[in-house]
C-alpha cells in the first residue's frame, strides 16, 4: 500500500474529495455573501437562514406538491430570491443611509425570526430528503467509492460559481450593478433604475443561498439549525478571500474545504478550527484578505 507521510494514499485522496465537496458548499454560500456585501455593503447575517429556507422549500415542495429534486433546483432559488427581494425592498432599503451596523443587526434579527419560526413548526430534529434516483449509487475510483450525487454537487457548484462571476464581471448588467453601488446618482442620470438593481442584487445573493440549500438537503438532513451550523464557517471563508471579492469567495471556498479535509487526515483534532486559524493568519499578514483590495 502506497504511503505519504505515513498516511495511506487512499485515505489522503478520499479526504481530499470530501474536502472538495464541503468546499463546494462553502464556495456557493460565500459567493452569495460576497455578492451582497460587494455590491450593497450589507453584512447579510440572514444568509444562513436563507440557505435553510431553500432546503425547506425543496422538502415541503416534495411533501405537499410532489415537486421533485430537479424542479426544486430551479424553483427554490426563485422563491427564496423573491423572499430576499421583498426583504430588501420594504425593510433593508430603509437602512442604507444609516451606519452599516444597522443592516447587520437587522439581518441578524431576521435570521433569528426565520429560524425560530421553523423550529416552532418542525422542531430541531432533521427531516430526510432523498437523493434523486438519477444520481443514486456511486462510482468506484479504486481508492474510494464516490457517490454520484456528491460528484454532481461539485460540478453544479463550479458551474453556478463561474456563471455568477461571469454575470457580474463580464456582462452589461453586472457593470450596471457595480456602477450603481459606486455612484448611484450618475447611473440614474442614464435612466437606470438603481433601487431595482439593488433589489435584484440582494435577490441574487438570497437565491444562491436557496440553491445551495437544495443541493445540501440530500446530504445533510433538512433542519432549522442547518444554517446556523454553517454560516460562521462561511463568514470566515469570505474574510479570508476578501470581503466583497467574487473570485476570492469562489477560490477560497474550495481551497479551505480541501484544507479542512486534509487536516482530518494529518491532525483530526484540529479539523474543526483549521479554517479559523487560517483566517487569523491571513488577517495578520493581509487584513484585506487574499483577494481583497487594500483601502
From TrEMBL:
Which domain of life does the protein's organism represent?
Answer: Bacteria
Record's subcellular location? Cell membrane
Q: Which GO terms describe its cellular component?
A: plasma membrane
Entry's Gene Ontology molecular function annotations: transmembrane transporter activity
Alphabetic keyword roster: Amino-acid transport, Cell membrane, Membrane, Transmembrane, Transmembrane helix, Transport
Q: How does it sit in the membrane?
A: Multi-pass membrane protein
**Transmembrane stretches, start-end:** 12-35, 68-88, 100-122, 149-168, 189-211, 231-258, 270-289
From its record, what is one biological process in GO terms?
amino acid transport
Family, similarity comment:
Belongs to the binding-protein-dependent transport system permease family. LivHM subfamily.
* Name listed for the protein in its UniProt record: Branched-chain amino acid transport system permease protein
Q: Which organism is it from?
A: Paenochrobactrum gallinarii
